[in-house]
């Protein structure tokens, strides 16, 4: 049986009723689930191409299957962004899904709906997209094949494979390609290395990227910015981006312990492969709702046990060597010490106190002995019941900590009881940790054999879901360090409140080497596209190890304040020791004031690796906050304040780099001043080399 080759666009084909299967235009159903593969009917229709365009008409994706090899290409305003790039999956069992496939049916849909986040960088998220469900089936009329679901947004495109049930399958290779201009500039960290996602960014032509983590951010010669990432990473492996040859990028999945990329049983869908597209860097940072929109709606229901807020902790002291995690004379997590931190939090309006090193297992070589952690057993000098009570009396909550040293099974065996212990003591947020080299997450199988896997393998991804579900049963939110990368899963599991997943502040304490001066001017356009980051800003003693030590915080004081706005997280740490805040009470006021939950967020200006200017409106209020950071070069910023609410007068409380400020030679010079402004005004300020600016726009009562 052979296909009737008709060379017309699928939409017309549908309208003309030429395709028998799957041709009806679906009512808009943006959350539509896995498509049940439609049987191919007697008459096979092969369509030459299928095309989808974004609601504003600027971005198009075209799918073709010349010679039976499905491939897609993407354009912006008609100009090629992604050249024809192959698609496909290969399996250990054979019956690969990469060739011999023709387009047999196309179904259209579209959506325009707005939904509300329980917490977030904006309260209301608009999901406006067009969709095609493209059936790719055997050229000879068999049922072998898959559906490709494609969505086009004004901020980019996403597509995923929807594979029918053919029993157990072991994915050994995904050949999704992203053929881009090899001369484009890329900002990237290496993938599949020992330090997981925690590398400084490199800036090179794409053609020099060996294998990179996502989001992988690119700037084309004409200034168009792209980011390649994924959405809804569930029951599958995380995607690394491998380079075949100049600009020919290919998905490379993080392997399981047995080398297989993903084991699946029955019908399955892959995560969405996402290409964000924007005219400039700021547009990229403003287009990240695409990831949330490509995730399923909230599955957990009410997560009001979690309240966004700021926290302090027994933490930085360990990193700079003042305290120890383990027991002994310098033990940080003592009852007495924790009470001091609770008092400090209460005095300053912070809602949480993180305590690390509270449980048995930290003595000795904890990095290599995750098996020894006991998550229900506090050290004798840490009275969790008394501290839970003491905190509650002061309107503060403890934030729990579970360092697993990457031993997943040891944690899973204890986590339900550990969450119950926390729940009983009023703890609603837990920071988890998976300190272990990149391929060394330890699992113990049913036969008692130790197996080792990657931090973004399918096994880790599945573990994370079990953690989120167990935590939710005990009204607990999770902030994972050494996480699998964020793919917008917080929409579906809104107790996944923050995570690490890049180099945080801690590297400035223990170096090897510290973060680069430009690091925070890269993050908003790379790591931050993916979601909240527990960066732990607010270090006021910028040289905790002394002036001569290479490990210092490469920043001015004002820049430390700006990070509360430029880096989004619903929980933000005031990371330094209380005594260092006492030394700068004026600057500290900004940290006391700044919220962590937002009505709206806008990236106003920026260039990747140079600078960023971000404005956010507090949720449930009229105040706006602005953060700006620059790289190793000083910079002047001029802004229109038209983001402010028209008709209101604001007092702009400005925390700016002071005279002669410079991250290297004069980091503490700060100028704090205020002036009245309205949305009609413009504002200019200067940022020192390695500096920044933080501004609170406090609305005057009407
Ligand atoms: C690494 C985490 O990023 C850090 O915040 C934590 O203190 C240590 N692991 C110990 O758990
Ligand atoms: Ca870390």
What does this structure look like?
It is a single chain. By secondary structure, this protein is of the alpha+beta class. The chain has 3 domains: 11-293, Beta-galactosidase, Chain A, domain 5 (Distorted Sandwich), CATH 2.70.98; 299-501, Aldolase class I (TIM Barrel, Alpha-Beta Barrel); 514-702, Alpha-Beta Barrel (TIM Barrel). Strands 8, 9, 10, 11, 14, 15, 17, 18, 22 and 23 form a 10-stranded antiparallel beta sheet that branches. The protein has a 7-stranded parallel beta sheet with strand order 31-30-27-26-25-24-32. It has a 6-stranded antiparallel beta sheet with strand order 33-34-35-40-37-38. Helix 7 (408-424) links the parallel strand 26 (397-403) and strand 27. Helix 5 (335-348) runs parallel beside helix 6 (384-393) and helix 12 packs parallel to helix 14. Residues 1-44 have low confidence and may be disordered. The structure holds 1-deoxynojirimycin (NOJ) and calcium ion. 1-deoxynojirimycin is lined by residues 315, 356, 403, 433, 435, 481, 500, 506.
